[in-house]
Amino acid sequence: MEDLFVNIARLLNSWLVSLGLSSWWADLILTVLQWTCIVIIITLNVLILIWLERKICGFIQQRLGPNRLGPYGFFQTVADTIKLLTKEDIIPSRTDRWIFMTAPMFFIIVAVMLYAVLPMGKDMTVVNLNVGLFYFISVGSLSTICLLMAGWGSNNKWSLLGAMRSVAQMISYEIPLAFSLLGVVMIAGSLNLSDIVVAQHKVWFIILQPVAFVTYFIAATAELNRGPFDMPEAEQELTAGAYTEYTGMRWALFFLAEYTNLVSVSALASTLFLGGWQGPILPSWLWIILKTYLVMLVFMWLKWTFPRIRMDHLMSFSWKVLIPVSLLNIVITGAGIDFFRWMGW
Amino acid sequence: MYGQGLFKGLGITFKHTFEKDITIQYPEQMPFLQERYRGCLAFDFSKCIACGLCTKACPNNVLSFESVKEEGAKKKKLLNYTIDLQYCLFCNLCVEICPTNTLYFTHNFELTQFKREDIKIVYHRPPELDLVTDKKEDASAVEVETENVNTTETDSKRLKQIEAMKTALGKNPAKTLGKLLESEEDIAIMSVLMAADEKKLVKIAEMMVDDKEKARKVAQAFVNKEKKDRSKEGGEQA
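^ Those are the sequences you sent over. The predicted structure of the assembly is below.
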């Protein structure tokens, strides 16, 4: 079970080579297959996640949640997807057409790109990049531009306001996010995510870096435009923020990308702080799924507990609390590492 | 500590997650209605005496009826009764004022209709009300009923009296027994006997209510027997 997917990939590779293809072509075909798998998994996962989110929201508010379609209302999201697919695709007349149309596509592409470096099990990384974490942060920050594209292209005041807010918020929270990850990188001594997972075989980094974990969690919530930090799409004041003018499948792509980002951020949290794919008995790919879902459940719990924070509070919290705390964490971590080295450990 | 409220809130939502849901899935699951819930107003045609108090009490003119007084008849005859429910504010005034409890609230709250005319509830005089007019039958039935009522009433009255007598005998035997026995010595003996044996007390009480003369005789017999027994014992001892 442990090497199930790795063995499948190896078998496919040897089969392709035996067909007379050069190893370069075999690798290319395999990579395309891997990406297809990732996209399929993401799409199916989002169906589950939206259902789970609605169900948990219902339970927290002592409601039942969706319960009509299928067992426990499981097929509700499937029905919603079919509805969205068959909806009319409206493009308002005064929009910046190309920007408006391409924004959701870029958004989803950026979201999927993040999965390239995530280790989804032992030896299960699509691209084993030695600057994986750096890649993750830099690609992740691209989604800000996509939101700004959507807001600008819509030619609508709410869209633009929502986009401006999201840009301000996401840029502010990118800094504590990156800083909080630096502590982990300093201890592990590597930017490669697989190496960071291996470095946790004795003790998880959540124990060594609790402050970094909390900072990362808060910053990630803001990065995802979720939970108490969902200012960019604050329904009560901005209708739907940057998504106001979008309908049908274009809107669904934004939704898909948001949940995809949720999964990738949660997977990164479990990779960096919760020991990644390491765990007893169960195969590694199941461990990372379990941990990722646990983190996502906490994200949902936070979202349905806290009220939305005010915009100026949001900004001041980032600049006046999170950034100093994460900077201090780096200093203390560095001093601690030096101290233990001096002690001869 | 700063931020304590956040954890409190998380605790509350966590607790709620595992509590019982308050949702009632209405068409399949009916909500629990209190006994005095005011649902649709209903009307019992056979009870109505066409007094018109309800129509006067109603603040919105919801209620209306038609009645006739036939030649030589004592009572008015109700022909139909209309409840125009769309104006009803369920204030309970008509139900309260009705002298025969003809109007009452049901638990039916599903009052929607497709057409405005359907909201009106019209009760027509049921034909069986006119069929039961054979006066002899009616009268005998009433008589039988009153008889039954009388017997049951006397029965319960007697039981109550016996109960009262029992308590009187228990609490103050000398005074109560004074009505039956003459000499003070006999009264004292009887009261000791009754205190010793509950059955005797009940028997005397019952007889005092039903037949005082018999009670006197029985009580005297009890006393005489006791006197005899005592004198025997005294003789043996001597």
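The two ends of chain A are 37 Å apart (CA to CA). Chain A touches chain B at residues 56, 58-64, 301-302, 304-306 (CB under 8 Å).

Shout if you want it in another format.
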